[in-house]
Amino acid sequence: MSETNTPAPEAAEGHRYTAAMAADIEARWQDVWDAEGTYEAPNPTGDLAGDPAVAARPKKFIMDMFPYPSGAGLHVGHPLGYIATDVYARHQRMTGHNVLHTLGFDAFGLPAEQYAVQTGTHPRVSTEANIENMKVQLRRLGLGHDKRRSFATIDPDYYKWTQWIFLQIYNSWYDADAGKARPIAELIAAFEDGSRAVPGGRAWAELTAGERADVLNEYRLAYSSDAPVNWCPGLGTVLANEEVTADGRSERGNFPVFKAKLSQWNMRITAYADRLLDDLEALDWPEAIKLQQRNWIGRSEGARVDFALGDEAITVFTTRPDTLFGATYMVLAPEHPLVEKFIPAAWPEGTHQVWTGGYATPAEAVAAYRKQAASKSDVERQAEAKDKTGVFTGEYAVNPVSGEKVPVFIADYVLMGYGTGAIMAVPAHDSRDFEFARAFELPIRCVVEPTDGRGTDPAEWDEAFVSYDAKLVNSTGEGISLDGLGVVAAKAAITDWLTGRGIGEGTVNFRLRDWLFSRQRYWGEPFPIVYDEDGVAHALPESMLPLELPEVEDYSPRTFEPDDADSQPETPLSRKSDWVNVELDLGDGRGVRSYRRETNTMPNWAGSCWYELRYLDPNNADALVDPEIEQYWMGPRESAPHGGVDLYVGGAEHAVLHLLYARFWSKVLFDLGHVSSAEPFHKLFNQGMIQAYVYRDERGFPVTATEVEERDGKFFFEGEQVKRELGKMGKSLKNAVTPETICEEYGADTLRLYEMAMGPLDVSRPWDTRAVVGQYRLLQRLWRNVVDEETGAVTVVDAEPSEQTLRALHKAIDGAGGDLAGLRFNTAIAKITELNNFLTKAGEPLSRPVAEQLVKLVAPLAPHIAEELWHRLGHTDSVVHQDFPVADPAYVVDETVTCVVQVKGKVKARLEVPPAISEADLEQLAVTDEAVVAALGGAEIRKVIVRAPKLVNIVI
Predict the structure, then answer these.
(1) pTM of the full predicted structure?
(2) Domains along the chain with CATH numbers
(3) Which of 5, 274, 773, 900 has the maximal Cβ count within 10 Å?
(4) Per-residue model confidence (pLDDT) at position 377
(5) Is the backbone of residue 203 left (phi > 0), alpha (psi -120 to 50) or beta?
(6) Residues annotated in the binding site for ATP, as ranges?
(7) How large a percentage of the chain has pLDDT more than 70?
(8) Those residues with Cβ within 8 angstroms of residue 473's Cβ, 6 or more apart along the chain or in another chain
């Protein structure tokens, strides 16, 4: 260690541990740790390689979820997870691990862009200022990050590789036969040599460049498409389904969201649905998170069935093909592409008035209904409401098993994003179809015999009969009869029948949709894609990366009136014509040509899909990550067959979006041979939330929490009574407490201890500033146990500790050590507190060996005071890399245990005996005990049952 490692000068209040002394100790040791690279984790190779002996230790890669650097800064709720991972990382270092723990910043996204629009400040300027502020706040907490590895997603050296990964995905296709991604060049070669048929039947050489691009677009894992999207005019951008609230509004800004058809970039995540589902089993994740991912992926087995409609066919996916004979109408999603193809000019003769919606023609009815449906979110459309809406298209399709003509409706309860966007409606056996059929006076036919005694006439029913354990009825047609079969047998029989006639087949469907990857924003990664004069997309060569964002005068996409559903996106980049229109030589042998750049940018999820990899090798200019380094930190191992980060801590709110996207990118990179880990995060832990009381006035508006007074159980603000409720902590709720406030009053170590002691890490807990003092007093008692408050001298002695002290020490080591390893920080602190209190009251001088073990025990939780005391005890090296104390089993075991002695089933004596006492010795002690002898009263002992060391039962 350097000469900076000297004890603190006298504080203003002598040698007491005060907030002023804590501030001095903490700032000084943070400077030392930074100067000496205390937390730098060596790689096995490369420019971050360190001592080979250190790198040879078992590794531990610990991560927090990417923070976004908000201009509001941190409140005390934000660092909960960061402190927890820091405590765990420190404990792992002390138990012999080479620990990689660092933190970067997820810095692209809407908040910085909105601030730029409002103020004219470049998003980079405000974002970098926010990052610097956040770094200062986090440093004050004493977090042991390897700062050499930190970065922000807005760094061109970082997003160069985000763009590179996009190109790997763009230049890949999913080979279903091989079950993995392969380079698109291999697919092109197969088309060229004829080993794979070109869709449409023509030879590859006969296709134009545009036609080839269209064919490949249907295979690429990153592809463009004209598809229904969530268009938000108020924000001027499209949104992913997950960014739209249940009531059809934008998560940010609360603007209306409409369905529109736009050309967008997509990621073919659906190709990986099975693997994303199956590989969950090997991950050490909370079961609730796994369940959310399973539900989002939504695997279901059933059949594809074709219903003829003129020269077209409406294809449906159904999990109940056994009920085909009960399909009395069809429903298409309003966005279904077939709707526009077959709408007749007039209503068929005899069309039911309820079906027309009151419109004169089918075209008018369909157009009006589609506009109405576009204003609803998918969640809102699927809500279980009794009022079903829809409109008849004016056409009929043919039920393939019965030959019956069935009317075709559009209705918003059918989604284009699930299955084929069309359903066969079996109202007798589906609740939503039943309600729709009743509303539109459609036939309801029973084909699954009810087992609840209601009979087979749906006219007498109040609801649909849904069962997977019943027999089929009314289900006989040409060449097929399902009558009398159970559901399972009937599904198999009808699927075979459909397959044999080429009008259907067994298939698997997923709820998961492809990932919409375009945003009409400025502040995001530019796509490394250009278009030629024919509109054909071309990837930029790697030598042209990174493609940096240009400077623009107007950061805002064009926004519209929030309810202007017919508006179209206009991106900020599209207005930068000298950047959009370029002359480039792409190295494809065609020389310099004119191109137009893609003017959408990537979503804010892009940078967080792979950041764990860049932590490993942040300065590598030649590769995403060195394979040897990636294998060392993230490669598969016995406990983690798919590889991944050893511990990933973050909020449960990322259960689907971030985690699913990151898993998808990992699997593509794994398939292409760029990484050895098929999963990004092996162990996931969701921390709870620190909540705070919100005080609201009679209008329901929050008032400043720190200015509220409590009187007789009631709360008052400026003399007026207010209501108190428990909720989130935040600036808008006027209840935020900053880390600086607590650090100034008590010190960072106290804040760390309090947040870890509040309760189990995975549950939410209320903040109470008044309770922080409890942990402050713990540190003060710890200080007094080692340092004389009057003189500043170390008071420990070299004498041997008593056996009682050793027992207290080793029990604390045993309990706290296991708790720290298991993320049970609140119980670890309780055991350390118990030990510290024992030593305070022991009535004997604290021996040096006990003091040193105590300091090391505290070091993961309160590192600054531990480092200070360690050096005051005479050490010159850092406590950070000391071995964590190991409990002596001899002292962990209780010195004595209580043995209960029963006579005729009643307790007559309690004996204090050694834990290892033999049955014979315990029996002898029991039968000769005075109280037992008195209870026997001279009676003959028939039998003695001994369960050493805790029970003796004497039968007389």
Answers:
(1) 0.85
(2) 1-36+746-893 (1.10.730.10), 299-510 (3.90.740.10), 691-727 (no CATH), 894-955 (3.10.20.590)
(3) 5
(4) 66
(5) beta
(6) 731
(7) 98
(8) 446, 447, 448, 449, 456, 483
